[in-house]
Amino acid sequence: MNKAIEVALFLHLLAVAVWIGGMVFAHFCLRPALADLSPQLRLPLWESVFARFFNWVAASVLVILLTGGFLLTQFGGGHAAWQLHAMAGLGVLMMLIFGHIRFAVFPRIRRAVQAQNWPDGARAVGTVRRLVVINLVLGVVTIGFAVLSRGF
Ligand code: HEM
């Protein structure tokens, strides 16, 4: 493997770890721990957690796209193994879902917190939760395709 491929794979996996690991932490650790707080405390907390985490995800998406695109050209481009195309397809789907969370649902949380409209805020946080579960499942399946592409 040449150096450029090694570096790209390293960055690709680092970005995947940040994105998937962050979703696991938010969904399985932070969410249940905050569940008993009142909406007045819980929703502003989610807003500030998301504001930070989504910047990390945006950076990860950028790195995954750049390194994934580069790796795909190195692994045969259009003739690469079908599992790599599956990875790219699912990866782009995950990015679209993230884009919807960041640019459609998150602003609703912000507005609700500013207006102290707790029912609307709770609904929007619930939507983020469902979309994060979908992205987590897609992420795990994508990692499965990555491993399968090795052709064991
Ligand atoms: C635009 C989207 C993506 C493209 C074009 C892409 C492309 C690639 C390519 C070409 C490789 C190298 C395969 C190899 O080393 O044999 C790779 C590795 C990998 N990718 Fe992606 N990828 C994308 C998104 C993702 C996402 C979203 C995930 C996880 C959720 C992911 C997980 C992995 C993993 C775990 C590997 C290491 C596989 C290995 O070395 O065995 N990729 N990716």
SSE-based structural type: mainly alpha
- Mean pLDDT, all residues: 96
Query: How many helices does DSSP assign?
Result: 4
Percent in helix: over 70%
| Share of residues in strands | under 5%
In total, the number of domains comes to 1
Main sheet specs: none
- H and E order: HHHH
The low-pLDDT segments are: none
What compounds sit in this structure? Answer: protoporphyrin IX containing FE
Number of strands: 0
Structural Rg = 18 Å
Shape descriptor reads: elongated
Beginning-to-end CA distance, first to last residue:
18 Å
Layout: helices, strands, pairs:
Blueprint: H1 3-34, H2 39-74, H3 82-115, H4 118-148
Bound molecules: protoporphyrin IX containing FE.
Could you describe the 3D structure shown?
The chain has helices at residues 3-34, 39-74, 82-115, 118-148. With 152 residues, it is mainly alpha-helical. Helix 1 (3-34) runs antiparallel to helix 2, helix 1 runs antiparallel to helix 4 and helix 3 packs antiparallel against helix 4 (118-148). The chain binds protoporphyrin IX containing FE (HEM).
Can you summarize this structure?
The chain has helices at residues 3-34, 39-74, 82-115, 118-148. By secondary structure, it is mainly alpha-helical.
